[in-house]
Design a protein that fits this description.
heterodimer, A: mainly beta, seven-stranded mixed β-sheet, four-stranded antiparallel β-sheet, 11 strands, B: mainly beta
Chain lengths: ~110, ~120
């Protein structure tokens, strides 16, 4: 089983619908992240969480919200999806303060908004 | 603010030849530098990192990278390319200063190794 699991792996939805992408991890890491990947733009950080009570906005948080339900679970929500949110979304984890920055990624969730 | 640039969208190399994928960065303090690889339909995988010490770091699958402080570069290299090295490669940087806890990624370079 993967250490960082994302569901769903693929989702097609319509403009205005609410969508939730879920991430769970078995690595025991405190820190979790949501990134968005677009061709030619690399990965951009949406939200990150350093522990269950800590949520921080990344560089492109508008239109998104997150919930850290437990140390192992971090979900990303699109309250009202729009076509320019069509992208590949990645969840990632890392250990705590001793970590130098290495991230461990899930397999990705491909979202298409029509 | 920290940033990273990968000047080449695509690099094509013949199998058996050496390869280089370029990366330059900008940070306020000392950089923590990373290379990740993404194979089709997969998440990113860590290849190697530079934190401190020897400017030449070695990583997975025979890859290495050279940190050059004066040129603010961290180019990825491999002496002899394999077809299986074909993938999307991302350079990333984190500032070592207190509070800078996030990785910033470049736009990616697609490496194609031709048989």
């Amino acid at each position: 089983d993967a250490d960082v699991t994302q569901t769903p792996r693929n989702r097609i939805t319509k403009t205005g619908k609410r969508i939730m992408l879920e991430c769970s991890q078995t690595k025991g890491h405190d820190r979790m992240y949501w990134y968005r990947q677009d061709p030619g733009l690399g990965l951009r950080l949406i939200y990150y969480s350093f522990d269950v009570k800590d949520i921080n906005k990344g560089e492109i948080s508008d239109g998104y919200s997150v919930s850290r339900q437990a140390q192992a679970k971090f979900s990303l929500s699109l309250e009202s999806a729009i076509p320019n949110q069509t992208a590949l979304y990645f969840c990632a984890t890392s250990p705590g303060l001793a970590n130098t920055g290495e991230l461990f990624f899930g397999e990705g969730s491909r979202l298409t908004v029509l | 603010a920290q940033s990273v640039a990968q000047p080449e969208d695509q690099v094509n190399v013949a199998e058996g030849n050496p390869l280089t994928v370029k990366c330059t960065y900008s940070v306020s303090g000392n950089p923590y530098l990373f290379w990740y690889v993404q194979y089709p339909n997969r998440g990113l995988q860590f290849l190697l990192k530079y934190i401190t010490g020897d400017n030449l770091v070695k990583g997975s699958y025979g890859f290495e990278a050279e940190f050059n402080k004066s040129q603010t570069s961290f180019h990825l290299k491999k002496p002899s390319a394999l077809v299986s090295d074909s993938a999307l490669y991302f350079c990333a940087v984190r500032d070592s200063i207190q509070g800078a806890q996030k990785l910033v990624f470049g736009q990616g370079t697609r490496l194609t190794i031709n048989p």
